[in-house]
Inverse folding.
């Protein structure tokens, strides 16, 4: 935990009906998986969502209309940031495990894929952000490797009940970095010979390499701000999400 608070953008990934039996208490509500990101400008490249299979989540009332699925820890923090129907008190409508969320069909803002699915990632932390992570394999080494693992390992898919049609087969290029091309995460994971999502040290190095370069040297190649530098587009896309109500701010 850092000394300074970290501000995340929570992307509202809407759960598409019909809801599975485990979510029956939520029928008739607007339900979202709330994914914490530091890179709101990358949302064009979302291909899926990540949850921790053994993680414990809940469906919490955020206001009179919206329900967010996230960890109880994040719900409590949100309740002190004016994001709870009852101020300073989270209201949980039902408890859910990550396994209950795998396979949920989602509609996520700016994503080119109209429907994306919640899938298992084994390195999601439940004591950071919301415990829900949106996946942008073009620009996030963690996301790229977790997706590679699902694509190449049938036993992993079987273990978590992942249907083949839920797994995206293509990365969506969204940002050009002169040194790394249009799929920076794929290039860096390949160059560093990263083997799986559990290769923590190399992934940390890959993240360092891509995160800074993406910000300083990256150019958007899609969307409303195509052609603009990432540094310029980032605050604009963040404001757009907030104005359109497709995201909220969250600090911890
Ligand atoms: B980022 P920091 Cl394209 N467990 O969003 C594991 N990872 C989590 C998490 C959790 N509970 N909550 C958030 N994250 C991820 C996009 C992205 C991100 C891109 C590139 C880099 C990147 C799409 N995934 O992060 O430890 C989220 O992934 C590189 C650091 O608070 C979030 O932003 O610094 C980032 O980690 C927050 O990490």
């Amino acid at each position: 935990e850092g000394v300074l608070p970290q501000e995340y953008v929570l992307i509202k990934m809407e759960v598409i009906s019909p809801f599975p039996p485990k979510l029956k208490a939520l029928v008739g509500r607007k339900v979202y998986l709330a994914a914490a990101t530091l890179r709101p400008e990358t949302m064009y490249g979302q291909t899926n969502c990540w949850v921790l299979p053994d993680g414990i989540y809940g469906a919490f009332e955020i206001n009179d209309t919206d329900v967010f699925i996230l960890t109880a820890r994040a719900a409590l923090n949100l309740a002190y940031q004016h994001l709870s129907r009852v101020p300073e008190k989270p209201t949980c409508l039902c408890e859910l495990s990550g396994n209950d969320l795998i396979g949920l069909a989602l509609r996520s803002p700016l994503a080119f894929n109209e429907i994306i699915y919640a899938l298992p990632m084994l390195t999601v932390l439940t004591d950071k952000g919301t415990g829900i992570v949106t996946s942008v394999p073009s620009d996030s080494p963690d996301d790229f490797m977790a997706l590679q693992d699902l694509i190449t390992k049938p036993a992993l898919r079987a273990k978590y009940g992942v249907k083949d049609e839920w797994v995206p087969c293509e990365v969506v290029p969204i940002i050009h970095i002169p040194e790394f091309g249009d799929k920076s995460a794929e290039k860096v994971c390949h160059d560093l010979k990263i083997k799986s999502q559990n290769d923590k040290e190399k992934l940390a190095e890959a993240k360092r390499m891509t995160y800074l370069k993406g910000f300083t040297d990256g150019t958007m190649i899609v969307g409303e701000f195509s052609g603009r530098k990432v540094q310029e587009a980032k605050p604009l896309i963040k404001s757009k999400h907030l104005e359109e109500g497709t995201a909220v701010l969250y600090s911890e």
About this structure: Residues 200-217 form the longest helix (18 residues). The longest strand covers residues 7-15. The two ends are 9 Å apart (CA to CA).
